[in-house]
Amino acid sequence: MAVGRLVCGTLTLVGCLWAQPAWSQTKDQARLIFTISGGVVRGTDLWEVDAQPVQFITLTDTMALGRQIRSSLALGFTGTYFPGDNLGIAAEAFLIGLGFEDSCRMVFSSGAADVITTCQSIQGATKSASAVSLSAGPVFRFNSRNLFSPYFRANLGLVFSNQSSIRMVGHFLTEEGQADLIIYDDDHESRVEPQFALGAGFTAAIAPGYQLRWEIRDNITGVQTVTAASPQARTIPPHEVTFKHLFSLSIGFDVVLERRRGRRY
User: pTM of this prediction?
Assistant: First the structure.
């Protein structure tokens, strides 16, 4: 009986010593995560001009003009690599929108019907866009082996927009049909601007190799803005890059690939 107990105790000790390294390896196994997400991006004011002179034929009227960034849907594709439990690196393509809505109000009117019609055509006019940001940055997560895992992230990248945030055009009717009256012109229809992003969220495991993800983020995006009235219409106004806070809320679906000891993804 004593020999049997000694053998059992020895086998138990050997099993524990053998199992311990295997357990510790799971703490260090790498993870590669692919995410597709969707959500909304909240808009914000972009620029305002209190008194822009607009000359039409021989008369000069004055308009108050404004533009804001519209709220829009967002779509993201992300790849994240975690060499360990906590710190990782992520690369992302994120559809952020950057559509606009314009406003116009007559400050001084000479009574020219075409100018009034032009202002009315600008008021409430919307422009869709499909700006995309490409970025990368670190991700730090907690409790990665638990059901819920909170995380923080920071991204640095570029925003590619296909529509000028400066150019503003109104319309009026003539005998030949609709004509354009350019208020502000721009020599670039598309631009590339810097972007920073700070986000926080959490993941929830729903099955082996799959997670749901919730995230709120501040997309600090560079956008060209009009800074002052132009001496006259039909010219490029004074402008500069301004960083706007575009907050987004998204829900994502993760596919998690793990590299265990002795195995590849």
Answer: 0.82
